[in-house]
Amino acid sequence: MSAFIQIRDLAKSYTKGKVTITPLEGLTLDVEKGDFLALMGPSGSGKTTLLNLVAGIDTPTSGTLQIGDHDVAKLSRAQLAKWRSKHVGYIFQLYHLVPILSAFENVELPLLLSKMSKAERREKVNSALELVGLADRAHHRPTELSGGQEQRVAIARAIVHNPELLVADEPTGDLDRESADSILALLSSLADDHGKTIVMVTHDPKAAAAAKRTLHLEKGQLVTATAV
Amino acid sequence: MKLLALAIKNITRHRLRSLLTILGVAAGMFLFSAVETMQHSLETSTQSKANETTLVVYRENRFCPSTSRLPEHYGSTIERIPGVKEVIPIQIAVNNCGASLDVITFRGVPAETLKSYTADLEVLSGSFDAFAKRTDGALVGEHFAQRRGLKVGDTFEAVGVKVHVNGIIHSGSPQDNNVAYVHLPFLQQASRIGLGVVTQFNVKVESADQLESVAKAIDETFQSDQQPTRTRPEQAFFAETAKQMIELIGFTRWLGIGAVVAVLALLANAVLLVVRGRVKETAILQTLGFSRPAIGVLVAIEGIILGLTGGLLGVISSALFFHFKSFTLGNEGLTLALQASPEVHLKGLIVAFLMGLIASVFPAWKATARPLVNSLNS
Description:
The complex is a heterodimer.
Chain A: E1 5-16, E2 19-31, E3 36-40, H1 47-55, E4 62-67, E5 70-71, H2 77-87, E6 88-91, H3 103-108, H4 118-131, H5 147-159, E7 165-169, H6 177-194, E8 197-201, H7 205-210, E9 213-218, E10 221-227
Helix pairs in contact in A: 4-5, 5-6
Chain B: H1 2-11, H2 15-48, E1 54-59, E2 70-71, H3 74-79, E3 84-94, E4 105-109, H4 111-117, E5 122-126, H5 128-133, E6 137-141, H6 142-148, E7 155-158, E8 161-170, E9 180-183, H7 184-190, E10 197-198, E11 200-205, H8 211-222, E12 229-233, H9 234-241, H10 243-276, H11 279-287, H12 292-325, E13 328-331, E14 334-337, H13 342-369, H14 372-376
Parallel strand pairs in B: 4-9, 6-8
Antiparallel strand pairs in B: 1-11, 1-12, 2-10, 3-4, 3-11, 5-8, 6-9, 7-8, 13-14
């Protein structure tokens, strides 16, 4: 049975002025469905570039990137947007909730693209908020929530449309230890109990320890893999 | 609908900025609606109600009612010309022959011919019979009455003529709503022109194809007289009399275009500022799966809401302004009531909508043109 994410000879390069930068070069990797993968490495190692490619918000220069049934590397910008709206949930380090919207409305955002009725959307948003333990904060605005709670809302927003893949860019990077542990426990539960495939970039070894596997990158290439 | 709710919330994010933009648009659209009201009023006054079987006989080389003087007995001579159906002598008295914003016009017409002169005349209050019985009675056009605050039973004096209001009238012809109809002999005496002298004759002919031949016959009949005539179809008479007014008001169209361009620039600037302030947030929405068209629609909705709200305010202000100020522009006896109309309001709103849409195109494109990763890192 083939892996959920199949990456073959993936490379990404871009030019800055007259200099060509290659943050990712010839990377090959498989990620199984339900895996919780942590990407570690020093700044400039290519881990965020890899995350962005997997999330479909950037396109590779060469190589193949097969996620589920989709050859993501070959999708156009419009096709990628559609694919993301169905298959990917993105969790940002700084949550990036829309400040004028309540927690409920923030979580509802990805569903605005679907043809769901208002009642269906309400049900899905409430379920997502319940899953992250914030059902009682549904009508609070981001400014009325703690950092940990904001990140939970962001996770609810990432899972509300039931994507198979969650990508998280330093999801605990801006949180205190207690909140970070609670977020990591939530991500583990999403992988274990709900079958989500999670790819997470982190600098924090404790965060990486929560994942099932940790990959170390350096200069755009895979260095070592650690299984938990 | 889902994006509309989001767009409305976005607009309320910077309330002062949105309010200032809306006020700016409202000011521009007020000017645009005012200019359009003038254009529309002129159009309806000079074109739509011209009767194709009516000729106007005026004194040759005269352009103002106070200088066009024709003997009333010309009427019986004209009646004998083949093709003529009816001749109505009319005395007109105006307070100002030049361009003015407050023109008062009396039209003296034989009471028995008034109804055939203005076929669709409707008495809104008072009665025609009361007018017919009273020599100094007047039937006052509704706009005239509104402008002067007149009601049935009032007495008022203008142009040295003192009349008693017997009725307020409405007519499908905009000109009739701006004047006061009085008895011909009364006006001839009160205006010191004297009995037996009129300003013009309105001549109804049997059919439209006889207009030219009858006009020629009338002018030839009186060409050797002391008061030679110039006879034109009513439509041509209006168009010629209103020529200066048309040129003056035609010029204001440029002001309207200027106002629209200013509104467009203001809206484009406002929407561009909105987009620039939300580069990262737009990228996040795209990361969540919002396509470029969806982001474009969201930006366009914001522009349209700003444009339409400002447009609505401007159009309403303009309508209220013309309603309460009741301006009547006049030149050479032709009156033009500046009145807002539903067509002008609708045009104003359509223009505001289009300006909002056009002003959003470039900002919407700019909002989504950058690579997503660059916007997220900005």
